[in-house]
């Protein structure tokens, strides 16, 4: 079976002065996988995302989507399969009413009217916004707006969904809403997910995590595996998650606690050591 | 400057079908020299509250000599219910950094962008060299290299640098009170820590009072002297973090998060280990290591 996304020897740069270069990048995502992409600002995460559906074109190398190499000619077909949700909930809406906004993508690719109606229903149900079909977007919360943005992408029934820090501008409640929707789409609908994030809790939902640095993929592991490699994270300008830092400093103070990524495990470790 | 708010209420779209109460009888004092945290959900009224502090939103105003309503808002000597209050003078001394301030960068160079903030609020026409001195000082204190960035377009800076440049444009007037609405949101974890370190530096050397609106409870626990919790337009608590996060159950019931240290204290309590700390990471680690007379 072909990979959902495949980058073969990809090179890309934004021009000499930018200081950013991607060279010989090889990377693939299997169908149905949930991959988290980590890395500090400017490490190339968004570049990776935008190359996947032709928003950026590689200088050399090849990108394939389900085995089909991405070219200028099949760009629009590829975009139906690979949808991206961006960071800012206020800059992605194109209409003022929820259903019009969700329909935009589907109308754009020329689907029959009846089918568009069905897809709006499907997409809004999937993100839990069916009661807001005729609501005004500007009156929604940030989390609701992002769910509408996801619905707009879902209406095209993409097989791959990329979230480029789509929760960064949301409050904790909004973040949970989005992450739950994405997790469910991956598990129930089999949508392949690439989740770009700075939040450890979100990355832990993925089955695999990669770390980018200067346009290169420098670490690949399970998310748990990645967060245990604290020294490496620090040298790629990523902070150690707070919980890892606490465990490490307790060990530094002479307490024999194992690394933990969730509160209960660490509490259990501490309780064992002190009693 | 001390901030005293009494019986402050605010309704958006008043007298229309879309009327929403954002503040409901808020009474709150922020002392000079505090690192004050404001937390609450989206829509809890916290941004509405801080926007009152430099006159972007106003309580009902009255003419001088007329009887005042129940609402009172004093920021230092500025009476915000007085129609004649000099807002420019107030804004020179109360700086406001909005969410994602880098989206407000506009000038061709970093120098011009920061200088705009100075000239905009200057009392009189600046003297020769005065603007340059102030801009240089502001750019340097936010941790940017003045000689390198002054001629650059602000749009060529990295995300974290843009935010610093935007903050420089606000603090260039040396405000006594600096208010920031989610100053670290959207940055990577390292960028977040750098911004919080910058605020601590500013607090020590530049602005007397710092007020931050934040969703990040770890940031709040590590940095703030006191915290106000907003919910549905009302102030539920005003407490130092060490006392506030003893109300972990109540905060979770309000749908708010608590710092990691508070979650650990709670999970340890369930396991029969009582840790009494002030919820900073430093203190939590020290108290755990000192539990029952030390590591066994």
The ordered H/E elements of chain A are EEEHEEHEHHHEHEHEEHHHH
Rounded Rg of chain A: 20 Å
The largest sheet of chain B, given as strand count, sense and whether it forms a barrel, is:
6 strands, mixed
Portion in beta strands of chain A: 15-25%
Task: Supply the number of helical segments of chain A.
Answer: 11
Globally, the shape of chain A reads globular
- The chain-level mean pLDDT of chain A equals 90
Shape of chain B: globular
Q: What is the strand content of chain B?
A: 15-25%
CATH first level of the largest domain in chain A: which class? Alpha Beta
Distance between the termini of chain A: 53 Å
Structural class of chain A: alpha/beta
Largest interface, chains and sizes? A-B, 36 and 40 residues
Write down the domain tally of chain A: 2
Looking at this structure, what is the CATH superfamily of the largest domain in chain B? Answer: P-loop containing nucleotide triphosphate hydrolases
What does this structure look like?
- The complex is a heterodimer of chains A (275) and B (296).
- Chain A is α/β, with parallel strands linked by helices.
- Chain A folds into 2 domains: 236 residues, Rossmann fold, CATH 3.40.50.300; 35 residues, no CATH class.
- Chain A contains 11 helices and 10 strands.
- The model of chain A has no long low-confidence stretch (mean pLDDT 90).
- Chain B folds into 3 domains: 166 residues, P-loop containing nucleotide triphosphate hydrolases (Rossmann fold), CATH 3.40.50; 64 residues, no CATH class; 38 residues, no CATH class.
- Chain B has 12 helices and 10 strands.
- In chain B, the strands form 2 sheets. In chain B, strands 6-7-8-3-9-10 form a 6-stranded mixed β-sheet, sandwiched between helices.
- In chain B, strand 4 and strand 5 form a beta hairpin.
- The longest helix of chain B is centred in the middle third of the chain and has 17 residues.
- The chains are: A alpha/beta (275), B alpha/beta (296).
- Chains A and B meet through helix 6, helix 10 and helix 11 of A and helix 7, helix 11 and helix 12 of B.
């Amino acid at each position: 079976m072909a990979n959902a996304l495949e980058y073969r020897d990809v090179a890309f740069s934004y021009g000499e002065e930018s200081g950013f270069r991607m060279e010989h990048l090889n990377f693939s995502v299997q169908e149905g996988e949930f991959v988290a992409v980590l890395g500090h600002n400017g490490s190339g995460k968004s570049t990776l995302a935008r190359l996947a559906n032709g928003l950026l074109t590689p200088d050399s190398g090849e990108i394939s989507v389900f085995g089909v190499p991405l070219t200028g000619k099949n760009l629009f077909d590829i975009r139906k399969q690979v949808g991206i949700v961006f960071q800012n909930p206020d800059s992605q809406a194109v209409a003022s009413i929820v259903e019009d906004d969700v329909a935009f993508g589907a109308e754009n690719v020329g689907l029959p009217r009846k089918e568009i109606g069905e897809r709006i229903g499907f997409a809004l149900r999937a993100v839990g916004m069916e009661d807001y079909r005729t609501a005004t977007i500007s009156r929604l919360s940030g989390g609701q707006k992002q769910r509408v943005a996801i619905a707009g992408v879902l209406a095209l029934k993409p097989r791959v969904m990329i979230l480029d820090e789509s929760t960064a501008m949301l409050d904790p409640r909004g973040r949970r809403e989005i992450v739950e929707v994405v997790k469910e789409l991956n598990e129930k609908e089999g949508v392949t997910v690439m989740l770009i994030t700075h939040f450890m809790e979100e990355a832990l939902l993925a089955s695999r995590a990669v770390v980018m640095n200067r346009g290169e993929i420098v670490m690949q592991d399970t998310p748990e595996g990645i967060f245990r490699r604290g020294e490496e994270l620090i040298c790629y300008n990523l902070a150690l998650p707070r919980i890892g830092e606490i465990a490490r400093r307790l060990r530094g103070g002479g307490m024999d606690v194992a690394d933990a990524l969730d509160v209960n495990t660490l509490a259990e470790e501490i309780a064992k050591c002190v009693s | 400057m001390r901030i005293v708010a009494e019986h402050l209420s605010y309704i958006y779209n008043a007298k229309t079908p879309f009327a929403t109460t954002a503040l409901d009888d808020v009474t709150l004092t922020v002392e000079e020299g505090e690192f004050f945290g404001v937390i609450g959900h989206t829509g809890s009224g916290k941004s509405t509250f801080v926007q009152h502090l430099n006159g972007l939103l106003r309580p009902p105003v009255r003419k001088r000599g007329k009887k005042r309503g129940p609402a009172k808002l004093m920021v230092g000597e500025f009476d915000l219910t007085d129609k004649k209050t000099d807002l420019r003078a107030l804004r020179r001394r109360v700086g406001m950094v909005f969410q994602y301030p880098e989206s407000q960068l506009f000038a061709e160079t970093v120098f011009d962008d920061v200088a705009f903030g100075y000239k905009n609020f200057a009392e009189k026409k600046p003297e020769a060299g005065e603007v340059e001195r102030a801009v240089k000082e502001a750019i340097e204190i936010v941790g940017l290299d003045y000689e390198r960035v002054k001629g650059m377009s602000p749009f060529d800076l990295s995300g974290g640098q843009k935010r610093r440049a935007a903050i420089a444009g606000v603090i260039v007037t040396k405000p006594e009170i600096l208010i920031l609405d989610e100053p670290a949101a959207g940055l990577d974890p390292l960028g977040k820590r750098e911004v919080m370190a910058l605020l601590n530096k500013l607090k020590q050397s530049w602005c007397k009072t710092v007020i931050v609106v934040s969703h990040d409870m770890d940031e709040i626990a590590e940095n703030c002297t006191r915290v106000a919790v907003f919910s549905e337009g009302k102030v539920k608590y005003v407490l130092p973090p060490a006392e506030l996060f003893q109300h972990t159950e109540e905060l979770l019931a309000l749908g708010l998060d608590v710092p990691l240290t508070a979650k650990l204290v709670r999970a340890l309590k369930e396991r029969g280990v009582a840790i009494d700390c002030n919820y900073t990471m430093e203190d939590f680690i020290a108290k755990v290591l000192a539990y029952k007379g030390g590591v066994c």
